[in-house]
């Protein structure tokens, strides 16, 4: 079942194996639908390790990594946790199909402590779960239309975060 929190704040004292933020089961797809995007906010600095890694990224081989990166981070494109930074990534393409390159995980913390907050942006609200297999929007292009609205809003958030 999907977590029903607005912002999930957690202390990361272990790694998370690579996973997708979209769902394969029908039950979670009915309850809010796929996660269109994830905003991961780093609430603490980490001395070593704790990177968020994308093992299927096309950019994984272009990112130089020295000794200050964990071995786990060297297995994909990685982002170091820095207090005050936020990472935004999409789990779906603009046409609402799932993106297998959104596979991501959390590397183990080697030194220090990692605190983060996560905000998932779903296709639909959790307050009004889907009652049918089809689209509940009145727009004839519903799957694309719903996603288009969210992508515009998320793109603005991404643009605003990059300017910080």
Question: What would you note in describing this structure?
Answer:
It is globular and about 45 Å long. The protein has one domain: Jelly Rolls (Sandwich). The longest helix has 21 residues. The chain is built from 2 helices and 10 strands; from the N terminus they run E-E-H-E-E-E-E-E-E-E-E-H. A 4-stranded antiparallel beta sheet has the order 1-10-3-7, covered by helices on one side. A 4-stranded antiparallel beta sheet has the order 2-8-5-6, with no helix packed on it. Strands 4-9 form a two-stranded antiparallel sheet. With 164 residues, it is α+β, with helices and mostly antiparallel strands.
In short:
It is a single-pass type II membrane protein. The chain has 164 residues and is α+β, with helices and mostly antiparallel strands. The protein is 16% helix and 29% strand.
Task: Give unreliable regions as ranges.
Answer: 139-164
User: Helix count, per DSSP?
Assistant: 2
Any idea what the CATH architecture is?
A: Sandwich
CATH topology grouping: Jelly Rolls
Residue-averaged pLDDT: 75
Gross geometry: globular
Strand content: 25-35%
Assigned CATH class: Mainly Beta
Structural class: alpha+beta
How do the strands of the widest beta sheet line up side by side?
A: 1-10-3-7
Assembly status: single chain
GO molecular function: metal ion binding; procollagen-proline 4-dioxygenase activity
Cofactor: L-ascorbate
Catalytic activity: L-prolyl-[collagen] + 2-oxoglutarate + O2 = trans-4-hydroxy-L-prolyl-[collagen] + succinate + CO2
Keywords: Dioxygenase, Iron, Metal-binding, Oxidoreductase, Signal-anchor, Transmembrane
């Amino acid at each position: 079942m999907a977590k029903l929190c607005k912002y999930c704040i957690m202390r990361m004292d272990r790694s998370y194996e690579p996973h997708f933020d979209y769902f394969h089961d029908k039950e979670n797809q009915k309850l809010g639908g796929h996660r269109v995007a994830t905003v991961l906010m780093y609430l603490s600095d980490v001395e070593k390790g704790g990177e968020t890694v994308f093992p299927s990224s096309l950019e994984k081989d272009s990112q130089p990594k020295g000794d200050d990166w964990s071995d786990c981070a060297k297995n994909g494109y990685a982002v170091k946790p820095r207090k005050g930074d936020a990472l935004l990534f999409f789990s779906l393409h603009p046409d609402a199909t799932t993106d297998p390159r959104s596979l991501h995980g959390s590397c183990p913390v080697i030194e220090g402590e990692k605190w983060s907050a996560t905000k998932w942006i779903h296709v639909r609200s959790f307050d009004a779960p889907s009652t049918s297999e089809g689209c509940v929007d009145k727009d004839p292009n519903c799957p694309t239309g719903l996603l288009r609205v969210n992508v515009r809003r998320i793109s603005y958030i991404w643009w605003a975060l990059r300017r910080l």
